[in-house]
Design a protein that fits this description.
This protein has 2 domains: 52-140 and 251-319, D-Maltodextrin-Binding Protein, domain 2; 145-244, Periplasmic binding protein-like II (D-Maltodextrin-Binding Protein, domain 2). The strands form 3 sheets. A 5-stranded mixed beta sheet has the order 2-1-3-11-4. The chain has a 5-stranded mixed beta sheet with strand order 8-7-9-6-10. It has helices at 21-47, 52-58, 72-82, 99-104, 116-126, 166-178, 227-232, 268-277, 280-289, 302-319, and strands at 60-66, 86-92, 110-112, 131-135, 137-138, 142-144, 158-163, 203-208, 222-225, 242-243, 257-260, 295-296. Strand 7 (158-163), helix 6 (166-178) and strand 8 form a beta-alpha-beta unit. The chain is of the alpha/beta class.
Amino acid sequence: MSDTASPSGAAPQLPQRKKSKTGWIVGGIVAVVAIIVAATLIIVNVSAPKTAQADTAKTVTIKIGASDASQPYWDILKKKAAKKNIIVETVNFTDYQQPNPSLQQKQTDLNSFQHLRFLAQYNVDTGNDLEPIASTLIVPLGLYSQKWKSVSDIPKGGTIAIPNDPSNQARALFVLQAAKLIVLKGNKFAPTPADIDASKSRVTVATVDAAQTALSLPSVDGSVINNNFVRDAKIDPKSAIFADDPKSPGAQPYINLIVARAADINNPAYLEFAKLYHDPEVLKSVVASSNGTAVIVEGYSGTQLRALLKKIELQVKAAG
């Protein structure tokens, strides 16, 4: 049986159903919800703390060689550095001859134990090019005695122990000359015990490792001891019977430093660390650790310190 066609020949039209508003409403709600969810995800992604992985990627670890790593100011410095995403690890050395080779061999990233004169001697002797990025302090170099209460008490022919490394040895001889215990021949930049005029001097000197100067006190009439070994031996630095003046113009070669490899002098993390060293809270603790004897050195840029180093290196070469 066939279907009957309409008079116009067109296909029969089904009656139209009335459109429902419900579908539009539901669709609109779904779209709005989707927009809200997307916006929320964007906001959360922007405002939420970064993941541990991202933080780790931004964290820099600095290994720094020191001769006083147990002092309280290091803990203060480490906490301040951590807030800048810098993890500071101290590597303590008791032998002055070790920190610079360790830095040169990339076992450490920086060091903080030496003055300009010591660094200049090291660079000249080894042909290396370690360089300062910041100053720290100057401390007096003192003469101590367990036997005598004043320089005038030291008998003629007495023996004074001094450090045997060239830079501290020369400074110790200048201390003894200023105390009128020895007379040095000539006007050398880096005198040695061979430059002592024995006929005009009251004492003789015995050269020992810097770490042994404090331990030598019972067996000598006096000993010239670097400040960190004074502290380690629990000697009151104010008990020195004589000391040089860290504020004098002649003390400039003995400005202590934060030192880096030449290729790293502009490393942002290292410069930030050097800046944090001069935070007032850190400096207060540094001075306290020296029993009030340290003089903080401000106002020198890395460029100025490196220029001073080059000048002293030339003097060391000329003296050698």
